[in-house]
Structure formats: C-alpha cells, structure tokens
Prior knowledge:
The chain has 89 residues and is mainly α. It has one domain. It has three helices and no strands. The radius of gyration is 14 Å and the shape is elongated. The model has no long low-confidence stretch (mean pLDDT 88).
Amino acid sequence: MKPNTKIAMENLIKEAREKIPFNLSMDGICEGRCDVCPFKLLEFLDTDLSIWGSRLKRGDIPNLGDVHTLGRQCRELYAILQKKGFVKE
C-alpha cells in the first residue's frame, strides 16, 4: 500500500535533510552568478522544507502535486551539487 501524501511529504523531507548537505561552506567558492549558485539554491530548498515541516505540524495535508514539486526541487538541486562536486554518488 502506498503512503498517503502527508506521510510521503514527511518521508521526502526526512530523506532530503539526510542526503542533501545543507551545511556546505561558501568560503571562496562564489562564481558571481547568484541565479545558479548552489548555496542560494540550498537556502531556498531549506526554506521550502522548513515551511512544509511547519505546515505538516499544523495539520495541513499536501496534495500529490505538492509532493511532486518538492521532490523535483530536491532532485534538481542534488544533481547540481553532484555536477559541481559537492556530493559524491
């Protein structure tokens, strides 16, 4: 049986927090383009994960599109971090 969307979102948030390195140091790595900066993207994703964590605690139920969108953001950021050499796998 597939999990409901609340459980799926909780699992997604947990997995993202475990696998994505939100504690990277920015020292000397700035490339001058904020729109593709992995650190800015990490900051945005961290904010989205925190917002959804808060919403779930308040009892909000995400729809399938919400889970899909956040999952896509996590995958895309993870791919960027891999390409830039910040994560190995």
